[in-house]
Design a protein that fits this description.
The chain is of the alpha/beta class and about 725 residues long. Helix content is about 25%, strand content about 25%. Strand 34 and strand 35 (about 710-715) form a beta hairpin. It is globular and about 80 Å long. The structure holds 2-acetamido-2-deoxy-beta-D-glucopyranose (NAG) (9 copies). One 2-acetamido-2-deoxy-beta-D-glucopyranose binds near residues 629, 630, 691 and 692. One 2-acetamido-2-deoxy-beta-D-glucopyranose binds next to loops. It is found in: Secreted.
Length: about 725
């Protein structure tokens, strides 16, 4: 997941047990495959019987029914079945089958954050329209009793709503939380969120304005979603943070589209996957077809080429800081105070507790293993009642399980430290950490205290989080991903009362609101922003909404981010500005199909023979091309903008240059006479040749004096 790496490590232990329960009695030689057949045919057609027929032909009648896991039949044509390798190959060779790929488990990757991005409580709103907007949240379920989802002041669901509330026992929907479906199996099926992730994302996108929310007094303020008057429908595809089954995710898309949601937010994914075996790309393609924008987390891997949200019809969101940062001070008995990062909600009872370095807390490990507080090294007798000092980011996990009173760890990231911790913790920069180690070695009896966190203003924000997955796009090389960045560090939002805020068994607390970090948290911010734009422009296509948000984004300062646009895409989301973008780069289903055919993917529909072009020809709000290293190059980006501003307006192009490339725009002036009018132009980028592994960026801005329509331009080599 996402949330933070530490939490994920704790969960990994629990998951092993869950998996064997689910599949212990099944045929082990067979795996679940998704058989994708494209759109539903027009007219009379029974998808499920067709699916069973296909299985009958390959498996025989008696085995077919048992093999079928899911039949998708509301929004697209596909099924999931338990098949051997040979059986799946026979099915793949059928002419009506477009692709077959294995199902697998994907990971799930206050709120000052809305004020920070300019969508304040007093920002202009369209409340009547907003209350007709439905956000579909594909996640771990939801905590229905949270104040964030109370329906006080809400009328009945919008008329267009075709969904249901089947959330299982002891789960009730209301006029705010209007729908719930569960796809996970085993034990008690309930849409209730047992891990907090789904409640957090849903409330960030569309939670009510809840006064005086905080996490043990931290981040105190009004917790609210981007569109507090909108409705929520929860689609539960995972019980835990890394068992979101692909066949369940597809089922959620199949239903959400047919139920009539307006925006889908999905903070789930795992590793870049070719489009024809990427369930989220497939589901969101059909959503886009029905006018629904799908917003997806970019991923929490943090390294280059790791962004897993790659399809151009997805809105792919990086995570960055807001201007609030949590520090947790460490007082040493020698009078020194060190400022560390952490979301530490604990207050130690007293001051001056013994400090013990991991190296000295082990009786049977090498110094190297012991220094970082390897769990198998720690000797409970040497740790209990003491503050453990560890050469690792996540030493607090072992500290808590071995009975320590607190943990001081080293953390080299500027704006993030330990969070979701089950005991008092602080994360110190390497320099400050060394001060603690020197103190310990200078005295027999080193004492110290970890103070509860306080929030301070962070003037460096927004900076992209170290964990936010970077481009380039490893599947569609000529499409820039992520698209944009949004707040994803230390976000306060609703949580589940069925788990502790740290999700550690040691932690006996429960919290209605919790602070989490991840692209899981930035994704629903962008979904809320997209819904907000939609309330003012109900007829805009998903591509137009995405374009409005991208071209009005705040420019990020690339001097502070070595990965530049590969880290933050078009920049930082600015919802209010996106209401009036001036021009939009729109794209229709046909444009996307043409692009897919250009990159030789014909699985969404058969491609025409006379296709020519490349992915960079797609009318995308950013421009990116992969070029060969050391060769001079000339790349053309044909684009069409639609005037969504005043009727008679003239836009001049301006290029924010980069000395290593030449950018020209033809024509350089666009004059519009009517609203809705389209004009085309071509951006030509040329250069003398770039070395390998190089990325160079510039931007194009169309300006009429009022609107500045900005697009990043990126060329790079492998
Ligand atoms: C329903 O679930 C809530 C939350 O887990 C619990 O507190 C309550 O006791 C449950 N009610 C029933 C009737 O099971
Ligand atoms: C399902 O929930 C009920 C009531 O909470 C409980 O008695 C029962 O043991 C649960 N069953 C399973 C399989 O967890
Ligand atoms: C990122 O992905 C790469 C490639 O799959 C993997 O080797 C690496 O461990 C991942 N890093 C993190 C922090 O998940
Ligand atoms: C705090 O420490 C004092 C002195 O050791 C003790 O009497 C008191 O019970 C402790 N309080 C809590 C809440 O643990
Ligand atoms: C160290 O000792 C502990 C407790 O005796 C034991 O559980 C652990 O496995 C040992 N670790 C190693 C690396 O030998
Ligand atoms: C970008 O950041 C650098 C270093 O912090 C600073 O010197 C520069 O002025 C910033 N540029 C802009 C445009 O803010
Ligand atoms: C697509 O396939 C055609 C024919 O096989 C080939 O000429 C072309 O280079 C391929 N294009 C890409 C982008 O792979
Ligand atoms: C590109 O040029 C550099 C410097 O001349 C050279 O070291 C490198 O091998 C060349 N790379 C390729 C792919 O030709
Ligand atoms: C736009 O300009 C044209 C030509 O000057 C004029 O006829 C038309 O009325 C103007 N439209 C608006 C909405 O101002």
């Amino acid at each position: 997941m996402s949330i933070s790496i530490p939490l994920y490590q704790i969960l990994a232990v629990l998951l092993v047990a869950t998996l064997s329960v689910c599949y212990g009695d099944r045929d082990k030689a067979k795996d679940v495959y998704i058989v994708y057949m494209g759109s539903l045919p027009e007219g009379e057609y029974s998808p499920t019987s067709h699916h069973l027929n296909i299985l009958n032909e390959v498996l025989g009648e008696s085995a077919a029914t048992n093999a079928l896991v899911r039949s998708y039949s509301r929004s697209f044509n596909a099924f999931a079945a338990r098949l051997s390798d040979e059986e799946q190959q026979r099915i793949a060779s059928k002419k009506e089958v477009l692709s077959v790929f294995p199902s697998r488990k994907l990971q799930l990757q206050t709120t000052r954050s809305w004020d920070f991005m300019g969508l304040t409580e007093t920002a202009k709103r369209n409340p009547n329209v907003e209350s007709n907007v439905i956000i579909g949240v594909i996640d771990t379920g939801i905590w229905p009793e949270s104040e964030s989802f109370s329906d006080e002041g809400f009328g009945p669901p919008p008329k267009k709503w075709k969904g249901v509330c089947i959330g299982g026992n002891n789960f009730t929907c209301n006029n705010k939380l209007i729908g719930a479906r569960v796809y996970t199996s085993g034990g008690n099926t309930t849409a209730r969120d047992k891990v907090g992730h789904g409640s957090h994302t849903a409330s960030t996108a569309a939670g009510n304005n809840v006064l005086d929310a905080s996490f043990y007094g931290l981040a105190k303020g009004n917790a609210r979603g981007g569109v507090p008057s909108a409705r929520i429908a929860a689609y539960k595809v995972a019980e835990h943070l890394d068992n979101a089954e692909v066949y369940n995710i597809l089922a959620a898309f199949d239903d959400a589209i047919a139920d009539g949601v307006d925006i889908i937010t999905i903070s789930i994914g795992m590793g870049p996957t070719p489009l024809d075996s990427d369930s989220i790309a497939i589901g969101s393609f059909h959503a886009m077809w029905e006018g629904i924008l799908t917003v997806q987390a970019a991923g929490n891997n943090g390294s280059r080429s790791s962004v897993f949200s790659v399809a151009p019809w997805l809105f792919s969101i990086a995570a960055s800081s807001i201007d609030r940062k949590f520090i947790s001070k460490v007082d040493l008995a020698n009078g020194k105070t060190l400022v560390g990062n952490a979301v530490n909600s604990f207050t130690l009872n007293g001051t001056n507790f013994p400090l013990v370095y991991g190296k000295a807390a082990s009786s049977n490990c090498s110094d190297d293993d012991a220094r970082s507080c390897d769990e198998s090294c720690l000797d409970r007798n040497l740790v209990e009642g003491k503050i453990l000092v560890c050469d690792s980011e996540t030493g607090w996990i072992a500290a808590s399980s071995s009975g320590a009173l607190g943990a001081i760890t080293t953390f080299s990231h500027e704006n993030v430290g330990p969070s979701g911790v089950p005991l008092p913790s602080s994360g110190l920069t390497p320099e400050n950490y060394d001060v603690v180690k020197s103190f310990i070695s200078s005295t027999e009896n080193a004492l110290g205290t970890i103070l509860k966190s306080e929030a301070i203003v962070d003037t460096t924000a927004p900076l992209v989080a170290h964990f936010s997955s970077r481009g380039p796009n490893s599947i569609v090389a000529d499409i820039l991903k992520p698209d944009i960045t949004a707040p994803g560090i230390n976000i306060l939002a609703a949580f589940s009362l069925d788990t502790s805020p740290s999700q550690s068994n040691v932690d006996k607390r429960s919290a209605k609101y919790n602070i989490l970090s991840g692209t899981s948290m930035s994704c629903p911010h962008a979904a809320g922003a997209a819904a907000y734009v939609k309330t003012f422009h109900p007829n805009w296509s998903p591509s137009a909404i995405k374009s409005a948000l991208m071209t009005t984004a705040w420019p990020m300062n690339a001097t502070n981010e070595v990965d530049g646009e590969f880290a933050f895409g078009a920049g930082h989301i600015n919802p209010v500005k996106a209401l009036e973008p001036g021009l939009v780069y729109d794209a229709s289903i046909d444009d996307y199909i043409k692009m897919l055919c250009n990159i030789n993917i014909s699985f969404f529909s058969r491609c025409p023979k006379d296709i020519s072009g490349s992915a960079k020809d797609l009318n995308y709000p950013s421009m990116q091309a992969l070029i060969e290293s050391n060769n001079s190059f000339t790349v053309k980006f044909p684009r069409i903008v639609t005037n969504v501003g005043l009727a008679n307006s003239t836009y001049e192009s301006k290029v924010i240059k980069n000395s290593q490339i030449k950018v020209s725009v033809e024509p350089s002036t666009l004059s519009f006479e009517t609203s809705g009018e389209k004009k085309s132009f071509i951006v030509t980028v040329s250069g003398k040749g770039l070395p390998a592994s190089k990325m160079v960026s510039a931007s194009l801005v169309w300006s009429d004096g009022t609107h500045n329509v900005r697009s990043p331009i990126v060329v790079y080599t492998n």
